[in-house]
Predict the 3D structure of the following.
Amino acid sequence: MSMLEAKGISLSYGGSNIFEHLNIAIPDGKITVLIGSNGCGKSTLLRALSKLLKPASGEVTLNGKDLSSIPAKTAAKQLSLLPQGPVAPEGLTVLQLVKQGRYPYQSWLQQWSKEDEESVQAALRATGIEELAERSVASLSGGQRQRAWIAMTLAQQTGIILLDEPTTYLDLTHQIEVLDLLQEMNERDGRTIVMVLHDINLACRYADHIAAVKNGAIYAQGAPSDIVNASMIEEVFHLKCDVIQDPLYETPMIVPHGRKKTK
Amino acid sequence: MSKYKTIRWEKPKLSYLLEHKTLWTTLILLLLCIAGAILSTGIGSQFISPVEVVKSLIGKGSAMHEVIVLKLRLPRIVVAILVGAALASAGAVLQGLIRNPLASPDVTGITEGASLGTVLFLFLLGGHVSVHWMPVASIFGAYAVTVILYLLSWKNGASPLRMVLIGTGLSAAFKSISYMFIIASPYFLADRAMTFMTGSIYGSSWEKDVYTLLPWLIVLLPATWLMARHVNVQALGDDVAGSTGASVQRQRLILLLLSVSLAGAAIAVGGAIAFVGLMAPHMARKLVGSSFGGLLPVSALIGAVILLVSDLVARTVFAPLDIPAGVFTAAIGAPFFLYMLYRHRNQ
């Protein structure tokens, strides 16, 4: 049994069903990547898995317990979510941002305990932004800023981290940097990572498990080399492509067809 | 980390991280506020030196000075400090809550709601009911507008952007209704209503004003400060806040009520003094950053100093005319607002 599981969940928004009776079990200690075309419901699924959205029917379970019945702060110690393109208020420093990750552990009287300080320091160290602690978040480069936000979720000390498109708005160098960082978190601390990615080739490189979402249902899921092939990509993305092997990682790599070249 | 002071006790178990810069800024502003208050108390139709003012305060001045200082001038000074601090705190909460640096009680319609409450009181009940009930009408108006604001902004939760847009609309609507009543009312009532809508602390007294406002602030300011970490986490956005386990909507409602109560109480006593709630939190943010635990006290002190100075200017420069202090906060506030719009023009 896995820690985080969606059992027959249905969710509708504005009258239309986003998904119906969807099942997914997130493998523990692995990196799971959700892929799918725009508007297929993968971000919504991520929010449902994180308690931000309550499914209309069915349940999301954390350790076998219904997530919606777990108190918010208790859940926040086991599960954190980094939404897409978060914005920090003007003048907020990196340290102040990362400190917010300690929110579920704090109270009126306890706002900077020894554990808080140690977790924040560890998060800054892990993301390599210790020297930037006093800088304002707004003054950082895109890659540094994303690392600061990831540091905040790390400071939350959760076994499961959900990230919605953590590489959007980043150039390729910084995309790799962020994904390497997340992989390191996963390998070193055994944290379960679930993220939405748009780049299928990067998804294949970093994911242990890929779930392809289509029309509000899981179309296929499994190890990248087992499920990523030309017919699956065509079904999910309506895109014709060739699938070759990544020369470096030996994972599947897609070569999309275009207007000028098809087979 | 020498820029910070860590406080950790075992009994009772408590721990805080304080920034040295914030501590020093708060201390300096506090001294500035006290010095300003003493100086301002001495300035008037009869000048009293700061030393004499302090002597009177501790009961060692001449009988005449004690009457002037304690009975006549000090209530007005204290009211300026309290009203300024309350308006600034209300603004600081709203700016954190709505995540918009231009938010303030003026923009969200709270000020106009309180004004309408007062105008209606003067128009409908004036002459029948004691004016001591006027603050109740003002606070009631502030709450009424908040209820409407909240209900209209609600769609699976109250979103900050909707609150700003709807607040701006409500503000304009309530102001128009107030003017409609003012135009229709007899001259002496119109005059009083206009003074209220500009904001004046002329003729403040211990019983009527200070003792009305003080209990509110003694409860509301510490309560707001205790909510600081909720404001901080809300400032990161609803999803991030929700993911850290914050009850976003419930805390937003509590913070909104705190802000409205602070603004409503201040307006009830000082009238619709504009721009303090906008300017003070801004200046505070420039000085100590956006962390709310430090931002709130610094905002409150800056608000107190702004109103103290505005009122001093208003009652002395054109003496013997006593101009409403709100004229001067608006005179500084309006250019400041334009400057802010200019600075944010590219965002």
Summary: The longest strand of chain A covers residues 16-26. The longest helix of chain A spans residues 172-189.
